[in-house]
Specification:
By secondary structure, the chain is mainly β. It has a domain at about 130-215. About 5% of the residues lie in helices and about 40% in strands. The chain has 1 helix and 16 strands. The strands form 5 sheets. It has a 4-stranded antiparallel beta sheet, covered by helices on one side. Strands 10-15-12-13 form a 4-stranded antiparallel beta sheet, with no helix packed on it. A 3-stranded antiparallel beta sheet has the order 1-3-8, with no helix packed on it. Strand 5 (about 70-75) and strand 6 (about 80-85) form a beta hairpin. Residues about 1-25 have low confidence and may be disordered.
Length: about 220
């Protein structure tokens, strides 16, 4: 994803802002993220939560229906994609668990649009310590909170040797591989903007613990 996403955390405005060290100066952080979409496929993430559980976000409560007709959402199910389409009457063709998993914070999905537009996510920032299981093989992942930076140094993922991060460029993937000491690939350490997700090809089962402190 080439362009940047904008976060406005309403409760954080008076006391402070979100930094690359993931420090948040607020108790209740509620706001919205505008993620710009370019024509074609965009690999994005919802990083705001509906109800504080991190598990009850649906395509209706996250992506919504204020998008061009025939917009598609493609969710990775472990071996292939589940695809849903927005009709001209503002209804999604389906909403199932694969889609719900993909739009929860910590995950991600492709969205395919015909024209440049924005998708707006509204909700709560998940704070504290949150642990997400990572399975061996391919999955789409993202930081669970709206914090830009590296997936490892900034957002706490500890890679295993030969783990791969595949960053979508808009027409293909840029692959970064962990040698055990450094990331290979163009640009080295993969940098994520707010609202971006990536494919992770993990060597083995592990956990990703993300910490977003409130002060």
């Amino acid at each position: 994803m080439k362009s940047k996403a904008l976060l406005i955390a309403a409760a954080a405005l008076a006391a402070g802002v979100m930094s690359s060290q993931a420090q948040v100066y607020s108790q209740n952080i509620v706001g919205y993220i505008n993620v710009p979409l370019t024509p074609g496929y965009n690999l994005i993430a919802n990083q705001l939560d509906l109800d504080g559980t991190g598990t009850n976000n649906s395509i209706y409560t996250t992506v919504g229906t204020n998008l061009p007709a025939n917009t598609q959402v493609l969710a990775w199910g472990g071996s292939g994609f589940t695809t849903v389409k927005l009709s001209g009457t503002g209804k999604w063709s389906a909403n199932n668990q694969v889609i719900t998993n993909a739009v929860n914070p910590g995950s991600g999905f492709f969205i395919n649009v015909a024209v440049a537009t924005n998708v707006t996510f509204v909700g709560n920032v998940i704070t504290g310590t949150n642990t997400y299981p990572i399975a061996a093989g391919y999955q789409i992942v993202a930081p669970s909170g709206p914090v830009a930076g590296t997936i490892d140094g900034t957002n706490g993922y500890h890679p295993t040797k030969n783990d791969q991060i595949l960053v979508w460029s808009g027409s293909g993937y840029v692959t970064h591989k962990w040698s055990g000491t450094a990331w290979s690939g163009t640009g080295g350490d993969p940098q994520l903007v707010v609202g971006q997700s990536v494919f992770l090809n993990a060597v083995s089962n592990t956990n990703w613990t993300q910490i977003l402190n409130v002060q």
